[in-house]
TrEMBL record:
This is Cupin domain-containing protein. Keywords: DNA-binding, Transcription, Transcription regulation. PANTHER family: ARAC FAMILY TRANSCRIPTIONAL REGULATOR (PTHR46796:SF7), HTH-TYPE TRANSCRIPTIONAL ACTIVATOR RHAS-RELATED (PTHR46796). InterPro entries: AraC_lig, AraC_XylS_family_regulators, Homeodomain-like_sf, HTH_AraC, HTH_AraC-typ_CS. Pfam families: Cupin_6, HTH_18. The keyword DNA-binding applies. It comes from the Bacteria. The keyword DNA damage does not apply. It comes from Undibacterium danionis. Residues 200-298 form the HTH araC/xylS-type domain.
């Protein structure tokens, strides 16, 4: 099993293209995304990303990509001195500009994590991941995904909406893969964990079969280490104990199944390896602060939405 893919699937990341726009005169737009991860790709010209959360504005040029992993309100502007205009005004200024070269063309989107309980990898992501055009290899998969997205947005045909949504999914995976491969910080536990072959063996079986009870002795045997060395390494690289990590993975997966609404509480408890719904509900509430039933009902009633 690909552990990163499983982590992202359990997070239940939903994606939406917010805007693909060209600006023909100095302009600025506000992006309220305090509950979601946002990204911007500059396909033409130059722009500035500014926010009170940032120490200083970030300069972006053609081919640059930035992912805001924490979700915070921000603005994009063609010039630092330009004030934000309304969306209606943007629509007015971007129409009927055939034959003119835009100052800036950009594509922006949002990734919303539906699962409230997320993998600790997300806690280690920096507030912004900026990929400059010169840092993206010309023939890399990430560059290919960006090119396909740009072509689909400008020359879209039948099925364009579905293709675009899948490209956003692919793009997010490539951004994270690029960050994991490029980061060289020993304080980033999961970057180190992904590089440890012994630990990865144990993590793989946890993610593949979270419904099984995995005593530390068995996980240590799978990893090829002694119990003492394995326990120490697991805690050092993940910041967690094997037992609590297994529980967390179980509940993450259980929350996703509950949101899908196709199984009752008893069935979900069985799927996740719990002896009965009572034990499952107790653990679920301890980690997520509400019972599985309340969680399922709240999601069905639209409490957890992508708005805001």
């Amino acid at each position: 099993m690909d552990i990163l893919s499983d982590i992202l699937q359990s997070a239940d990341i939903q994606k939406t293209l917010l805007i693909q726009r060209s600006f023909y005169e100095p302009w600025a737009m506000a992006f309220p995304c305090d509950r979601s991860m946002g990204f911007h790709v500059i396909t033409q010209g130059e722009a500035w990303l500014r926010s009170p959360r940032l120490k200083q504005p970030i300069a972006l040029k053609k081919g640059d990509l930035i992912l805001l992993t924490r979700g915070f309100n921000h603005e994009l502007a063609t010039d630092l001195d330009v004030a934000v205009k309304s969306t209606a005004q943007v629509d007015d200024i971007t129409l009927n500009q055939e034959g003119l070269k835009p100052l800036v063309t950009l594509a922006s989107g949002v990734y919303f994590i539906a699962n409230q309980l997320t993998h600790p990898l997300f806690d280690e992501l920096p507030e912004t991941i900026l990929l400059k055009s010169e840092e993206i290899a010309a023939h890399s998969p990430l560059q290919a995904a960006l090119l396909l997205l740009s072509l689909e947005l400008t020359q879209g045909d039948l099925g364009s909406e579905a293709i675009t949504r899948n490209l956003l999914d692919i793009l997010f995976h490539y951004i994270l893969r690029n960050w994991i491969h490029s980061i060289n910080d020993k304080n980033c536990r999961w970057n180190m964990a992904f590089r440890d072959s012994h630990l990865m063996r144990a993590l793989k079986v946890i993610h593949e079969t979270p419904h099984k009870n995995w005593p530390v002795e068995q996980l240590a045997s799978v990893s090829g280490l002694s119990r003492a060395v394995f326990s120490q390494k697991f805690k050092q690289l993940t910041g967690d104990t094997p037992a609590h990590y297994l529980t967390s993975i179980r509940i993450q997966k259980a929350a996703k199944v509950l949101r899908q609404g196709r199984h009752n509480i008893e069935q979900v408890a069985e799927l996740m390896g719990y002896p009965d719904a009572f034990v499952f509900s107790k653990v679920f509430k301890r980690l997520l602060g509400q019972s599985p039933r309340d969680y399922k009902n709240s999601y069905r009633e639209g409490v957890y939405s992508m708005d805001g």
